[in-house]
What we know:
This protein is mainly beta and 254 residues long. It folds into 2 domains: 116 residues, 6 Propeller (Neuraminidase); 119 residues, Kelch-type beta propeller (Neuraminidase), CATH 2.120.10.80. It is built from no helices and 24 strands. The two termini are 28 Å apart.
Amino acid sequence: SKDINDPGAISHKVWKFDPNCKIWxxxxxxxxxxxxxxxxxxxxxxxxxxGRDNHDRIMAHVERYDAETEKWVGVRSMTEARxxxxxxxxxxxxxxAGGLIDSANIATKSVEYYNYQHDTWTQVSGMRYTLAYxxxxxxxxxxxxxxxxxxxxxxxxSGSGRQVEVWDSANQNWALASTMSKPRHAHAAACLxxxxxxxxxxxxxGGMSTKHNSALDRVECWRVWDNHWVPGIAQLxxxxxxxxxxxxxxxxxx
Length: 254
């Protein structure tokens, strides 16, 4: 993230939010300042993955924050340095996909996952195209990869994508699950879960669109079980890109 006292600097500061008291408080700084990194909560621990450092170098380094000891510690690095990657917890492991691998906007289509119990990274089948600034979201028992800036292998990114890909664990590859109406990258996405798998929704918010050359205020909502895009979803109050979305439990006070 950027340091507000020096907008040109990359920050290593971290804050936490208490939704009950509605208060932000500072926790211990990361060891390495970074931007355009992945951020995942897994097993009551926080992980930051890759990104760019103060010298604009793309990183493979991974840090873990243990809330009990209140310390950041380095863990095994990814097999490939990447920034603008998609990252998520899935089946007890941390998955990462795509990302920029050099300063010329060259992206990768590689995918790997981290087993925190064994401190190991395992590569799986890559995507069908290179991708950066996509969003990875688990919904029920499946892992989805939503949108992103796509391109051909070993070439510069060509534009925002509409695709929603799903990891096929049986065949160990990625398959097209659906298509959004608006191409976008650097957006946010989250899963809204109901009482049954039939009431699980994937909501996609804002982002950048190379087609429109601007940030978006458009929100799309996909009912996963029957591949139905729900019409009439309210727009964001303003166009947003480079943001995140988080679903809080229903019992948290409003």
